[in-house]
Amino acid sequence: MSRVETLIETLAADARPVRPLRPPVARAMAWIAAVTISGGLAVYLLADVRQLFARYDGRAEMMALEMAAMLATGVLAIVGAFLVAIPGRSKRWLLAPAGPFAAWLLLSGAGCYRDLVRNGSSDLSIGHSLDCLIFILAVSLPLGVTLVWLLARARPIDPLPVALLGGLGTAATAAFILQFFHPFAVTFVDLAIHLFAIALVVSVTALINRRALSPA
Amino acid sequence: MAAAQQGDAAAYRLFLTSVTPFIRAVARKTGRWTDDVDDVVQDALLTVHRVRHTYEPGRPVKPWLAAIAARRSIDAMRRRGRIGMREVHNDVAYETFADPRANNEEATDTARTLAQMTSELSPGQKEALALVKLKELSLVEASSVSGQSIASLKVNIHRAIKKMRRNLAKHPRE
User: Fold this and answer.
1) Domain membership flag for residue B155
2) Residue A86 Ramachandran class (φ > 0 left, ψ -120 to 50 alpha, else beta)
């Protein structure tokens, strides 16, 4: 009996029943629904939505598009993370959030430029931007932990793409929630700090990918 | 595979056996090798076992399986690359200096060369050589042991040495 045949016999002898994972999109939607409920509750109880619209007076449509792009980045990255964690699913999901992410940067950058022209160089101070960094990191932590816990159930055979998408999804969701608590319209410095926070979250998840996702 | 997920050992065995050639083909195609392919196949089968809960019943099994086989093949290539970069093969490292009898690599080589050299000798030549040159018997003693005449012994020894010299020239020791 060859080594392969012996192994097959051993594995067949260990054929305990396993419960198949639910479809990845359904699992992603369950996580997104849970975050929507808890995030929505926090916004309802703690945020002032009317003030949000007041801050973006005159460019409300742009702000709505910007937030839609943020949300799309987060949702596509999270759905992609659940999908690429399963063997055989398309790796093209890695590129899925690229479009909305670029749109988010463009729209946000254009808004910042418009405010800079209107308000002058006072927009270039750091001000409360560091609070945004702390907010994104603090919100990303519980989101990331629950997401990684769910993603690890698939024991991804190639964990890095899963970690990258999961990190981006987490950070984009945190940045989206931040918009409801932001004390002022986003400036260039602020935008840069948001991007730094996102890069930090993605880097951390990428660094701990093997430990956190228990790959097979 | 769906039956295997429910704990059907016979179905699982059949599944693993029937997909092994496919895994082997993917490993060969991805890795472009032949020597380590069995290791990759075993690694892929173990991975199939670990992640069998990720197969979604009703979906085609081939892409799922191909991704696992390709990943394990790539992992094996990377592992080999890493080992190749950091480690070199050193025959001397296997010598156990504490026990000189264990360092018999050279003796094995010599024995192999000798076997090659004597392989073409006739039985009579071999016998004559063994008795006179190795056991160091006199021609008379060798003649009484082997039953060959002294003249035959001399001729056999002469021809054996000549043939061995020719052999050695044809296949010099590496």
Assistant:
1) yes
2) beta
Range of B55's domain?
A: 2-86
Residue in B47, B52, B64 nearest the CB of A18: B52
DSSP readout, A83-151? HHTSTTS-GGGGTTTHHHHHHHHHHHHHHHHHHHHHHGGGGGS-TTHHHHHHHHHHHHHHHHHHHHHHH
Which of B54, B86, B118 lies at the terminal end of a domain, its last residue?
B86
Nearest to A31 by CA among A148, A117, A114: A148
> Could you read off the pLDDT of B49-93 as tens digits, one per residue?
999 999 999 899 999 999 999 999 988 888 888 877 777 766 666
Interface of B with A in 37-96 (CB under 8 A): 38, 41-42, 45-47, 49-57, 63-68, 71-72
B100 assigned to some structural domain: no
For residue A14, count other CB atoms closer than 10 A to its CB: 10
> And the tokens for A136?
């994104």
User: Could you give the ipTM of this predicted complex?
Assistant: 0.83
